[in-house]
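User: Here's a chain of 479 residues. Predict its fold as tokens.
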Amino acid sequence: MLVLTTICFVSVSPASSLSAQVKIDAADATPEATTSEKENPAPAPAKVDVTPQAHDDEISKRLQRVLAATNWFSDPQVEVQEGVVFLSGQTETADLKKWAGDLARNTQDVVAVANRIEVSERSFWDFQPAWTGVGELWRDFIRALPLFVLALLIVMLSAGAGVLATRTGRALLRERVRATLLRNVVARAFGVIVFLFGVYLILRISGLTQLALTVVGGTGLIGLAVGIAFRDITENFLASIFLSMQQPFETRDLVEVAGVTGYVQQLNVRTTILMTLNGNLVQIPNATVYKSNIRNFTVNANLREDFVVGIGYDDSVDKAQEIARKVLADHPAVINDPEPSVLADSFGTSTVNLRVYFWLNGREHSSLKVRSSVIRLVKIAFQNHGISMPDQSREVVFPQGIPVTLLNGNAEVISKDRKSKRPAQHDVDAASTKAEGGLDSEAAVIGDQARQVKPLNDGENLLKATPFSDPHEDRVLDS
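Assistant: Prediction complete.
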């Protein structure tokens, strides 16, 4: 009866990285095994042929020679009894112990294997594995160095080609696209495409074809995700492109946008900056500007103003109209083409309301100052010609006078002199008073205020930079 102390049946691992060939000839060479081979032994052969009906001593000698030839084991001992192989000795890793057991099990006429090989524990101060890892990293770096140099060269060439493509695209689009922002975006898109092609080549050379396709194919998805995440920023950016293309206004134009009136200072990729008539800088998001109604007071020099004046019911409407029309015709800031007009507008409680329309050159004159001057001169003219302007709630006019009975019994009629005192002649002739401060446009004043504020980055301005000029100098508009 045969008693087995330890019997090990070990399966063969198919994932080993090193292939070892075991030859049958006993005179085989025994090269020194490397540490890497010791840590990653090849799977044992599926079958080791000796001779048919091999004896125990033959099996023992064969396995002894094989284990000694590997140099993976310290003092390997092989004993075979009735087809049972007893292995003893020492090795550095459990994988090598398993490899020896598989080798013995696959040997011809072996019934079982008792693997008594001990795995020796490494010293705490043994740095051999660390040095081995460092050596492998160094070898990997040396092997990858030519590929790294080639990749770096391709990146440099791709970057240079991208810059060249950007400049070429900007030059080709200079005459075809007026919008500076759109021209820059399209030109840079050319450069990015060229650079991405270089990155694709690097990934293909590195064997990362699937990653290269993922990068190229995922660019659109990344752009979509970024557009959704930064919707407001993207919306303002696109609005700036459309505004720079359409150019509804230029720098220094007086506009009204989203309820804000002021002179345009700058249009950048995010906001439109206005300086209001009060001297304040206001930034309006481009998306709001693009969606809002834009009133440009500078594109057309002629502006129409109007106001309402009420005359008494007993006064002649024709006479009042002619007086007001003459004031408008003689005013230096009111233009005759289109000609001014004075129209009966409505009936009030105690007045007939006349609406006075007149035109002025908005580039040369201030609409607020000219309107104030015209209202003042029309009032003076009506007073000089006896045209009443009664208050709707307090003044009642009695054309025939008021009969009054005195205490002594004598009746007397007191007539009211309806003609107002004539104002001073210099008030009649003056088109502008000191309080009105002249009739010139405020553009020059706003321009001076704009130059005193914190300087803006002119490089970000997407509009044509037209400095404030003399308000009496005609502005040249692009066709």
